[in-house]
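User: what does the whole thing look like in 3D?
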Amino acid sequence: MKRRRVTTSVDRKRLALFLAVLGIIFFFPLPSHAYAGPGAGFAVLSSFWTLFVALLYSIYAFFVWPFRQLFRVLRKRKAYGNAQIKRGVILGFDGMDPELTERFIAEGRLPNLAKLRDHGTFRKLRTTYPAISPVAWSTFMTGVNPGKHNIYDFLARDLSNYLPYLSSAEIKGPKRSFKIGKYTVPLGGPRIKGMRRGTPFWHWLGEAGIFCSVIRVPVTFPPEKFPGVLLSGMCVPDLKGSQGTFCLCTTRASGDKFREGGVRVPVERNGSASHSYVPGPEDPLLPGSGDELRASFEIRPDKTGTQARFTVESQNFTLKVGEYSEWIPVKFKAGAGFNAHGICRFYLKELSPEVEVYVTPVNIDPGRPDLPISHPVTYSIYLAKLFGPYATLGLAEDTWALNEHVLDDDAFLAQCYANHDDRERMLFDALEKTQQGLCACVFDTTDRVQHMFWRYLDEDHPAARDVPHAQHPQVIQALYARMDELVGRVMKQIDDKTLLMVVSDHGFKSFARCVNLNAWLHQNGYLALKAGKTESGDWFEDVDWARTRAYTMGLNGLYLNIKGREREGIIEAGADADALKNELRHKLDGLVDSASGRIGITGVFDCDAVYAGPYVDNAPDLIVGYGDGFRASWDSVMGKVTSLIFEDNLKAWSGDHCIDPRLVPGVLFCNRKIAEEKPGIVDVAPTILKLFGLALPGHLDGKPWTVAQGTIVGP
Amino acid sequence: MGSLGVNLPALIVVGISLVIGLLMVVLFRYTSDQDAIRIAKDHLKAHLLALRLFQDQIPVVIRSYGRIVLATGRYLRLAFMPLLVVIVPLTFLIVQIDRYLGSFPIKAGESFLVSARVTDAAAFNDASLQLPDGLVATAPAVHVPAENEVVWRVMAAREGDYVVNVQASAQSFAKRVVVGSGLPRLSPERLRGKFWERLFYSAEPALPENNLVEAIEVQYPARDIAFASFQWNWIWLFFLLSLAAGFLFKSILGIEI
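Assistant: Here's the predicted 3D structure for the full assembly of 972 residues, as structure tokens:
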């Protein structure tokens, strides 16, 4: 399915004919051959222009290179002068769990990681508080605690209204616009503001003249300028501005809305064809109206009823039932020349008796990005030209669609591994392009697949009770083997002057039981509902703030309703707040799930104790560490108060890591010996800086590890 | 003449260019592997971008340059394949158009050269030119032994469609001469044998085999076409305009070229 190979299928006869005619033209020239017309004109002009530009640029690069080196030396940026390594390669396997890894190594499934463990280093890697990807990867790249990089969760809360917003980036409309009647004509593009603070270590390396290729490290949107190349990862929005909104186009009538992450769109039958549309972003000419742009498409089933021909704008493709399309470009036309460009994949679910098509969230087109998703902007275009379109959405694997039973296990896995294959291609290209310097690439597949398939790893997960344990597919085992095989291929690409690190931001545990902390707060008198209410809607609808002392939203943060901070705060900052925090910690720590008899919360951490830095005021007041098998309930995350505190998790999303950080350390593998017994993810940045011979900035919280000289595990 | 300096020949060239530009891209669409061309072009662009993105890495720059050459070769191969399909009819079409737009007819009152190429130098002395009423020789024949040619200077007294005869070894060989204006069909040469050469250069029947005269040529003045304040050879104008039309239509029709 993925990218088309040109060179392998050379038609020898056509080539011979081509060469023969070319020979006749060259060796028996007639003036008429100059009359080749536009075809030859295009070919000759395009190719020679390309060659000419390339040649000019090569000459320029060749002659300018010594001067650039000299310039660096003059600016005292002598790259590699004190470096212990020529190249650093960091493979980020989001969520790779050390206990599972050890288990699979023991089972002989991971020979390459076993080699790294036996001859290099394998450690559990201390994660952040909380153990959430954006938090941990921000600490990974900046070498500081969240109090200095300002990322505490996917979501942060707006103090003026208790509503959530994305913690990593803020996207606003254009700065200037003018109105013509009911239309607002934007002048300029949207404004994007990164909320993560701190300086990623590749900025220091780049400034020192050490080239870095950084691919899909989370919380790198919007991409920041630095001397290197970077493709943004987790937190890149889709074209609608959301973190991923899939679309189910269906002829089935249903008033149900998806809980999160998707919309239902009607398919209208019209004779032998059916018509539907892909919902796009809000009309930029009518901001605030809620009017969305749409890209319509047609489905025309064939006579067998097993496949259908799709027409999306001028593009045609055929899909069998249960098959994905490639990435299809879609253009949303707003009029007056305003268009939004995206890409999406179509998955034909059903043709008879009903017609159902799943459409992925509309990703920003990397070959024509409407928002910057790389630095420089041309890097995403370069990758798109080289490998074809690829997923750009931060959370590209559509976990919501599987949760909502829109996709089945196989369709979800196919989507995951298609993205994974793209990522591998990018990694190996970056390795080839970065013979000196740093290459860091994060793979999300490990995280998404474990989230969605942990139910098959547990003996008795509530979400897989209908499948006998003996019949559970070995999805996670296959995932780890695949990652190990990737490590093996990378090891073959590197030399003995290259440091290879495999890191994960956190581990994984089962998510079998949900804890609605808002329900607990309500039942224990800390959160009040308006008179007559026993439950609330999403985002604290019907919460009586004037009588609420504490609340929770997001995955691990617990907030006090502080006077002068929150809009309707009632707790005095200082002694009262401290007392309330201690009281909550005392009551919540060790909270038992009476149904299972297990401890639902194994630790509650005071943020004043675990964070330090200029952005501590934005942190939650307490971090709740759930026990193994537990996590914040789906409702609690969305600020909803229910009557049940504990309940089974029946969703496919069955594994998680947003629990007590002490229970979910990540992994650290290295092809050199590392002396530290208890390394932390916060130490990665200073260690890399030290290995490249750079002085460590004073504000870093991490400590560099003692890394043995010389590669111990070679290719 | 219009405000842009356009005249009838220019209008004809513009029209032909538009039509052929459109036909070419449509033919290109159906005779080429569009996916392969798109990929080849994308790879070219990617390697060009690599030069900029990784400019400090000289090995990468050198490798990228090599890949650009390879990708260019691949692209050329893909682009020329469909060209092979259309080059034959297009060439014949253009040759025919050249009969009308390539040269001016002789103007009345102007002199011009008629030359005959012979196979044997001894035939020089025998060769003579017989002119019809309306054409007069203005100078004696000039022999060019190095080229085996005999050249006559002739003046056209008035407009008309004439036949001149070259006599050699008691044989007579006719050649058409057009004196006048407008866009008549012109044949600068009459040739013996040489099928391909006749196809491209002559619009008259072949000269008889086994005789002394190989070719008879009338030197019509080359036609320049006024267009956009410049004087153009029609082929160049056609080349540029059909190229522009092709780019226009390929964008409109979404065709990869």
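In plain terms: Residues 238-384 of chain A form one domain. Confidence is low (pLDDT under 50) at residues 1-10, 24-39 of chain A.
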